[in-house]
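Entry, Tuesday afternoon. Goal for today is a structural model of the target with zinc ion bound, before we commit to ordering more compound. Inputs were pasted exactly as handed over by J.K., no edits. I checked the ligand SMILES twice against the vendor sheet because last time a stereocentre got dropped in transcription.
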Amino acid sequence: MIRTPAGFFSVLDATLDDEAIAHVFVRDALVLFGDTPVALPWRIYRSAGLAAARVHPIGRYAGRTHVAVALDDRYSPHGLPEGLRAANLRSWFGVLDDETLSIAMRAVQVLEWDRTHRFCGVCATPTEQVGHERAKRCPACGLVSYPRISPAMMVMVTRGRELLLGRGINFPAGRYSALAGFVEAGETVEEAVEREVREEVGIEVRDLRYFGSQSWPFPNSLMIAFRAEYADGELRPDPAELADARWFTPEALPQLPPPLSIARALIETTLADLR
Ligand SMILES: [Zn+2]
């Protein structure tokens, strides 16, 4: 699972020195540096002569400032100066160290919020950055916008030694995972678990236990994970959401979500208890 590294703290303003780390995004691709790719030092970014559309200091960690940079739209991931390599954030999982990856996952969310809140949603006036917090304010009507975070629930339902895993209609071929869905306005996350399981597979669950949470920047989810026990009903996967859903035993599992995801941690923890 990806967590904020111990000792990290957010900053809104920073002096960028040669030791700073630049989380540079070209569209949704993160730029790394070198043949064995590492996080891009600010001095390398600066000497590359690239034009930034937006720059946001993100935080300090281990004595270094981390800054988010969105390149101008004219750049593409394939047309960068020598030594720079851009790829979707997911493809850097396991390449970039987990601490830096966690900060990059913050950076991309701040940049995406910045990109999508340049104008007031009420009166369309260009927004201004608030000085003392990560927020934008409309100078005409006063509307304040914060980085958008969308809570979503995930649940590992077990029935004795069996695990309930589903295949979302957009999943990679062969991949199964714990059920998940967004929390609706007005409901608790526990209610969202019960509703989503009922809607997606037609069963009832009981004994909800909180497992943990993880920020998931695709684009701005906060995954809140639970374990639950089957209570009642027959599996009837909703074809609008799921290509398949089944009970699996620990001895005959399908392809699981990638390491570093909370889904994988939730499944592995459940398996460890069942074995
Ligand atoms: Zn306004």
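Residues 120, 122-123, 125, 138, 140-141, 143 surround zinc ion (CB under 6 Å).
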